[in-house]
Amino acid sequence: MVNNIYIDNCLIGPRAKTFIIAEVAQNHDGSLGTAHAYIDAVAKTGADAIKFQTHIASEESTLDEPFRVKFSFQDATRYAYWKRMEFTSEQWQGLAGHAKDAGLVFLSSPFSEKAVRILSSIGMPAWKVGSGEVFNKDIIRAMARNKAPILLSTGMSTFEEISSAVNIVTDLDLEFALFQCTSMYPVPLTKVGLNVIEELRDRYSCPIGYSDHTGSIYSGLAALAQSVDLLEVHVTLDKRSFGPDVPVSLTMEQLKQLVDARDAFKSIQENPVDKNLMASELMGMRGMFSKSVCVRKKLKKGTVLEESLLTVKKPGNGIKPSETHKLLGCALVRDVTPDRLLRWEDIE
């Protein structure tokens, strides 16, 4: 049995609708104003949460760190890029307040213990642990101090490593969820691995999410069809924007499509149909769409009916095709035409 969790009073688990997280990551490109613009844009889509990443260059990186993708025209090093992505504690507080006012759950992934302290002062309703931090026991222990659920990404982990991370979290008496993802940017559809979702459910009896890096809506839709408990997708204001995360991101229009699909899928799943009862309710429609017996051509009074003279046409409120055998050998008591259904009163 899957253990449900709560994120900011939102139920996460099999009985709830999929919790959709819009991941901004670094798509704000270091602009505080752009980060706030993302909050307003995401709120309009109906997503549940917005997530950022809290980077502090001096606490998590060195000048030796290479670029994952060499993209920047202004940052000589990866360290310089992280430095440009930093916001102050007050700025993070402002972003969290804006998200709350907009009706969104505010989340941010910390990449150092100092980042955890900054976010803890704001009050995190859950901690999203990136795939590269799953191996970092110290950062998980630092997160554990406010007792919020831990959301673990598994993009680079073996099952043995996932189990090790789960043991750390459970030893700290914390609720948790796991995310299937593949740490490729973008990840091809052939390596998405949605089959892992059920295996994670079976092994760990916790809510399971899917974190998408494809840059399309297809795998997100497929995950929703599997009733995934959480869905995280990267988002961008425009596919022409600058930054390394843009190719793996969805537009706000695509995010809205996923939200609408989530709500539609939930409505479908929550309303099972009794086939027999539905057939009864559709009797009127059945009459419109089914057919009844009529003649193929104009026939005179006294004509003896045989199979070659009969056919079926709409609507279905006349003599049923299954009753055709009752007509054979009967004589007409009046002239009939092919533009009207044959009636019982037309025969002897």
UniProtKB/TrEMBL annotation:
<protein>
    <submittedName>
        <fullName>Sialic acid synthase</fullName>
        <ecNumber>2.5.1.56</ecNumber>
    </submittedName>
</protein>
<dbReference type="GO" id="GO:0016051">
    <property type="term" value="P:carbohydrate biosynthetic process"/>
</dbReference>
<dbReference type="InterPro" id="IPR013785">
    <property type="entry name" value="Aldolase_TIM"/>
</dbReference>
<feature type="domain" description="AFP-like">
    <location>
        <begin position="292"/>
        <end position="348"/>
    </location>
</feature>
<dbReference type="InterPro" id="IPR006190">
    <property type="entry name" value="SAF_AFP_Neu5Ac"/>
</dbReference>
<dbReference type="GO" id="GO:0047444">
    <property type="term" value="F:N-acylneuraminate-9-phosphate synthase activity"/>
</dbReference>
<dbReference type="InterPro" id="IPR051690">
    <property type="entry name" value="PseI-like"/>
</dbReference>
<dbReference type="InterPro" id="IPR057736">
    <property type="entry name" value="SAF_PseI/NeuA/NeuB"/>
</dbReference>
<dbReference type="Pfam" id="PF08666">
    <property type="entry name" value="SAF"/>
</dbReference>
<dbReference type="GO" id="GO:0050462">
    <property type="term" value="F:N-acetylneuraminate synthase activity"/>
</dbReference>
<dbReference type="Pfam" id="PF03102">
    <property type="entry name" value="NeuB"/>
</dbReference>
<keyword id="KW-0808">Transferase</keyword>
<dbReference type="InterPro" id="IPR036732">
    <property type="entry name" value="AFP_Neu5c_C_sf"/>
</dbReference>
<dbReference type="InterPro" id="IPR013974">
    <property type="entry name" value="SAF"/>
</dbReference>
<dbReference type="InterPro" id="IPR013132">
    <property type="entry name" value="PseI/NeuA/B-like_N"/>
</dbReference>
